[in-house]
UniProtKB/TrEMBL annotation:
InterPro entries, alphabetized: LRMDA, LRR_dom_sf
Cited Pfam families: LRR_9 (PF14580)
Gene3D superfamilies membership: Ribonuclease Inhibitor (3.80.10.10)
Biological process annotations from GO: melanocyte differentiation
Protein name, as recorded: LRMDA protein
Organism from which the protein derives: Baryphthengus martii
Organism domain of life: Eukaryota
Signal peptide: none
Length: 139
């Protein structure tokens, strides 16, 4: 196990058998591009610079769905995209739940998102309304 702060993920393409990847605290943003990692099941992106600006988070989630098809555990805590009260006092549980529906709509194979197990009810709600659940607040 090695811990490295990085801005480029170019070298990951040589690790096609990688199953877990922790990229916490790396200043990574919505422009994050991972190589195809077909066996990756756990991805931690906590405390980076991922946000819900425009459609960029949607693009990132679509990218993850394509390049990490086995993803089951994802954590985005500490990013602006993950609207919980720890990041911003203006966020509430409803904001966080809408975020979960949106992420689960894009990444339907997830079993855990952040620190919580994905429930059957959440999965059903994400299928029906997840595409419309981006958390957007007026400035």
């Amino acid at each position: 196990v090695a811990f490295v702060v990085c801005r480029s993920l170019e070298g990951l393409k040589t690790f096609s058998y990688l199953e877990e990847l922790i990229l916490d605290n790396n200043l990574l943003g919505n422009d994050l591009l991972l190589p195809r990692l077909p066996r990756l099941h756990t991805l931690m992106l906590n405390k980076n610079q991922i946000s819900f600006q425009r459609n960029t988070c949607k693009i990132l989630l679509d990218h993850l769905a394509e390049v990490v098809p086995s993803l089951q555990y994802l954590s985005l805590l500490g990013n602006m995209a993950c609207p919980n009260e720890l990041v911003c006092k203006e966020n509430d549980e409803d904001d966080y739940q809408r975020y979960r529906y949106f992420v689960l709509h894009k990444l339907s194979n997830l079993k855990f998102l952040d620190t919580r197990k994905v429930t059957r009810r959440e999965r059903e709600e994400a299928l029906v309304r997840g595409a419309f659940m981006k958390v957007v607040k007026p400035k």
